[in-house]
């Protein structure tokens, strides 16, 4: 792990699920499904979609939680409620708000049908953080922990060239710890 950098474990851009800002909710799932077909053996499935602007530059990302939020027609109101738990409001109060606004009351198929044409640009999170391709893995760990991010775009010379996923970083950490543990046990015998 000491000699590896972000580029050694990132998902290259050409392997990522990518859609335009104009792509629809349905297009996002199609892009994810197509990207899943090319995952190397042993790697976890992709859960993030990168979003490009008209000039084909990556400007945002969409994760699973964003897709679930988009199922709620009032998801903008729901987003405003995210700050409420931090204000010391209890679960009972939040449940009453959810009942009042009638969030997620329809069948899943109805929610999906209603969300089908929502544009990716309205669901995505604009890219505010990224890591450099040649960054060490220990620096990348620090960044992901600080940002509490599940994935971040990887840049080289200002352009996005891939995606660093927490799951891949953790797998590398696990390999390193188990390797060191094996070395320590061998030394103790």
Protein model, in words:
This protein has a single domain (6-188), classed as CBS-domain. It is built from nine helices and eight strands. The chain has helices at residues 6-9, 25-36, 64-70, 75-81, 91-101, 108-115, 120-123, 137-147, 166-188; strands at 11-12, 17-20, 49-52, 58-62, 125-126, 131-132, 151-156, 159-165. The protein has a four-stranded mixed sheet. Strands 2-3-4-5 form a four-stranded mixed sheet. A hairpin with a 2-residue loop joins strand 7 and strand 8. The radius of gyration is 20 Å and the shape is globular.
How are the SSEs ordered, and which strands pair?
Blueprint: H1 6-9, E1 11-12, E2 17-20, H2 25-36, E3 49-52, E4 58-62, H3 64-70, H4 75-81, H5 91-101, H6 108-115, H7 120-123, E5 125-126, E6 131-132, H8 137-147, E7 151-156, E8 159-165, H9 166-188
Parallel strand pairs: 2-3, 6-7
Antiparallel strand pairs: 1-8, 3-4, 4-5, 7-8
């Amino acid at each position: 792990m000491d000699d590896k950098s972000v580029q050694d474990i990132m998902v290259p851009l050409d392997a990522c699920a990518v859609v335009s800002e104009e792509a629809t909710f349905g297009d996002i799932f199609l892009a994810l499904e197509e990207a899943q077909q090319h995952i190397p053996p042993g790697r976890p499935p992709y859960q993030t979609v990168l979003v490009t602007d008209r000039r084909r530059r990556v400007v945002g990302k969409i994760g699973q939680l964003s897709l679930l939020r988009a199922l709620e027609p009032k998801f903008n109101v729901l987003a405003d409620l995210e700050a409420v738990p931090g204000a010391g409001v209890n679960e009972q109060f939040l449940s009453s708000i959810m009942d009042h606004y009638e969030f997620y009351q329809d069948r899943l198929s109805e929610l999906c049908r209603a969300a089908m044409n929502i544009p990716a640009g309205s669901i995505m999170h604009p890219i505010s953080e990224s890591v450099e391709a040649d960054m060490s893995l220990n620096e990348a760990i620090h960044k992901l922990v600080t940002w509490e991010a599940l994935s971040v775009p990887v840049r080289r010379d200002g352009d996005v060239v891939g995606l660093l996923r927490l799951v891949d970083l953790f797998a590398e950490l696990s390999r390193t710890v188990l390797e060191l543990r094996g070395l320590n046990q061998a030394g103790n015998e």
